[in-house]
Amino acid sequence: MRTHAFNVHAFRAAQRAAPLSDFARELSAGLSQPQRSISPKFFYDAAGSALFDRICELPEYYPTRTEVRILTECAPEIAAQIGPDAEIVEFGAGSLTKVRLLLDALESPRRYVPIDISGEHLEAAAERLRTDYPRLAVQPMVADYTMPLVLPSREKGGGQRVGFFPGSTLGNFSPEEALAFLQLACRLLRGGGLLLGVDLVKDPALLHAAYNDAQGVTAAFNLNLLRRANRELGTDFEPDGFTHAAFYNAPLQRIEMHLVSRLAQAVTLDGQRFSFEEGETIHTENSYKFTIDSLRALATLAGFRPAAVWTDPDRLFSVHWLQARD
Predict the structure, then answer these.
(1) Crossing angle, helix 217-233 and helix 46-55, to 10 degrees?
(2) Phi, psi at 27, each rounded to 5°
(3) Are residues 53 and 239 in contact, defined by beta-carbon separation less than 8 angstroms?
């Protein structure tokens, strides 16, 4: 503990005159609310991204394998919607795994622009993709894709500019944020389209198991937020003083993830002290679930023209082709 306290002191001394990072500002604002919160976008440092890759392989976590099955089995139909010489823009690209299924199905894709907030993880994945697809121009962008973006200029003679947003990441947004993101995407993709994967409303027992895996990987992913804050911001969270909790809020049709304080404790961030009562939570993520009709209605409101929809036989997950208006 003495070593940790010294490191925190040194960190604060070194950073005293520096402006707060986005992470620090948003964490401070979130901890100042009656319901404490941290944005889920801060899950994805290198350690968090690696943990999420492990989550996607868990037996309880159906979304990834179900979406991969849809993308694999319906690849020819999806490729027909996208057409030849396309430019693919992936929002929140992560490990660039699912896009390979798309690239393999497409006719001579010209360029791939993966956008992710985790620069180290993104560049390593982009380099692997360049090796495997030497004819594809791979141009990664380190950015928050929920904010205004300037994409590379369109290439002359190219096909459609197509957004790729798999994994039901749209469900992490509030309804208002989801609409704002789709409106932004519709403007960026004008004249092209968006290939969007979203999780569907289903038996709560399946949802509970998916977010409370037996191996505890999701718990480690959740708690890594506190470890990241300690590493990057000099906070003094005791991760062992918090526990992972996830449950389905049926009236709002969403999974909620929280970090629950095991005891009365206090945390310091940039000179501010935040006290926690035993049982008080930090809300770290929502994962909204959709019906096909509710997603199509939201997309229409954002300016898209909903077209084809693909699902698995059990209707656990759905992939939507949304045409962006000219």
Answers:
(1) 170
(2) -65, -45
(3) no
Q: Which residue type occupies 97?
A: T
What's the CA gap between 108 and 104, in Å, rounded? 9
Q: Do residues 137 and 129 lie in contact, with contact meaning Cβ atoms separated by under 8 Å?
A: no
Q: What is the pLDDT of residue 20?
A: 67
Q: Is the pLDDT of residue 59 over 70?
A: yes
Check: CB of residue 246 under 8 Å from CB of residue 252. Answer: no
Alpha helices in the chain (DSSP H): 2-15, 22-31, 46-55, 62-73, 75-82, 98-105, 119-132, 175-188, 204-211, 217-233, 292-302
Q: Which residue is associated with the tokens 């995407």?
A: 185
Give 240's DSSP letter: G
Could you tell me the pTM of the whole model?
0.87
Please name the residues in contact with 80: beta carbons below 8 A apart, sequence gap of 6 or more. Answer: none
Cα distance between residue 92 and residue 86, in whole Å: 19
Q: What are phi and psi of 261, to 5 degrees?
A: -70, 125
Task: Report the DSSP beta bridge partners of residue 249.
Answer: 254
Q: What angle do CA 249, 35, 213 make, to 5 degrees?
A: 45
**Residues 28-43 pLDDT 10s:** 999 999 999 999 989 9
**CA-based Rg of the chain, rounded to a whole angstrom?**
21
pLDDT of residue 16: 36
- 114: number of CA atoms within 13 Å, CB side? 30
Which amino acid would we find at residue 214?
A: A
